[in-house]
Design goal:
The chain has about 375 residues and is of the alpha/beta class. Helix 2 packs across helix 4. It has 10 helices and 14 strands.
């Protein structure tokens, strides 16, 4: 049941932050009883901020707040929760310091200070890196690839999230980078904005600048659904020459070879994936599926799609590697977090995307313009 709750990660952070806050309050009152009044006030403000941050994740609540305020309040609550986690472990280290002799006591005190500062330092570093776009090139091996499709270049933009966290000018740089790859085809795989009220028309204005020999195709993401702009995006994009495939397929010709591109609307996590999409497969040609959600890949492979191109995960957005294991929120939802995966003769490529949600932070998962190059095995 919890896997079906869209805001479950937000609820976890809220409850964790609340728990760590109450423990930190108790420890601080015991240590500094003369500051009880100030600590009560600070704790009350903290609880209110966290509560607002959580309920502002719900779209029926967001509509009553200006988008700038709701975006940054939710961000402030998330950063505060991360700080409280660090503060809890810092207090734990400081409480143990008195049990040891001077050298070890000094080490624990310094470690506690580091734990307290790390979330803030990480946030600042992540904000600086959030718009350091790069072009990620990946060679995708395709069995029996026709000669005319060898080295076909497909540029992908996904998870743009044009919002208070990403300006139109910043996104324009990503579009310029995509055009500089001189692609045969450009793809836009969903999440143009984050919430209703974000500058959707500005995003479409920049996407209209994409240039590719065979044009621009796309599919819709979950945030188009949340913002209730699926039909608007489809119609306006068509007007500027971008075709969003909504359970539709389009065959493109490259020399003497053809590729069938099929696209689907956002496939809700842990639901029945790709119902009826096997009918869009064209026998005897390369079949590519555009799906915002990469978790559909096993079903796509079973249906006969040679390649799935996706986004959605942001590569975890904040990804920490510990003992060669990657720790990030996206792994809670899917094992297809970032990069190229294979299953039998089929492959899926998952881009880390351009923008951010929750907080304007990128750590260990840099934003990217993806250049996919087809190659024979």
């Amino acid at each position: 049941m919890l896997l079906r709750i869209h805001f479950f990660p937000g609820l976890c952070f809220f409850l964790l932050g609340l728990g760590f806050l109450l423990v930190a309050y108790r420890r601080l009152v015991e240590r500094y009883p003369q500051l009880r009044t100030a600590l009560v006030l600070a704790t009350t403000i903290s609880i209110v901020l966290q509560m607002f941050g959580y309920i502002l994740e719900f779209h029926r609540v967001q509509q009553y707040f200006p988008v700038w305020w709701s975006t940054w309040l939710a961000c402030a609550a998330l950063v505060e929760e991360m700080f409280l986690i660090g503060l809890y472990f810092a207090l734990l280290a400081w409480s143990q310091a008195s049990k040891f002799q001077a050298p070890r006591r000094a080490f624990l005190q310094a470690a506690g200070a580091g734990l307290c500062i790390t979330p803030i330092a990480g946030t600042v570093f992540g904000i600086i890196n959030r718009n350091q776009f790069r072009v990620s090139e990946v060679n995708v091996p395709i069995p029996n690839l026709p000669k005319d499709l060898e080295n076909l270049r497909i540029v992908q933009l996904t998870d743009i999230h044009l919002s208070p966290f990403l300006s139109e000018m910043e996104f324009a740089r990503a579009v310029d980078m995509a055009n500089e790859t001189h692609p045969h085809l450009a793809l836009v795989t969903g999440d143009l904005i984050t919430r209703r009220g974000d500058p959707l028309d500005a995003c479409l204005r920049q996407l209209a600048r994409l240039r590719a020999e065979a044009g621009v195709l796309g599919c819709l993401g979950n945030h188009e659904v949340y913002a209730r702009v699926e039909n608007y995006v489809t119609a306006e994009a068509r007007r500027i020459g971008i075709e969003f495939l909504r359970k539709q397929a389009k065959v493109l010709q490259f020399g003497g070879a053809r590729i069938n591109f099929a696209g689907v609307d956002y496939q809700k996590m842990h639901a029945s994936y790709l119902v009826g999409t096997e009918a869009m497969i064209v026998p005897g040609v390369l079949n590519v599926l555009l799906s915002h959600n990469p978790d559909v890949f096993p079903v796509a492979a079973a249906q006969g799609y040679d390649l799935t191109i996706a986004g959605h995960t942001h590569g975890g957005q904040v990804d920490v590697e510990v003992l060669h294991q990657h720790l990030n929120v996206a792994r809670y939802f899917t094992r297809y977090v970032r990069g190229l995966y294979h299953e039998g003769k089929s492959s899926v490529y998952v881009s880390t995307g351009i923008g951010t949600i929750g907080a304007p932070v990128r750590l260990g998962a840099p934003p990217e313009v993806s250049l996919i190059r087809l190659c024979a095995t």
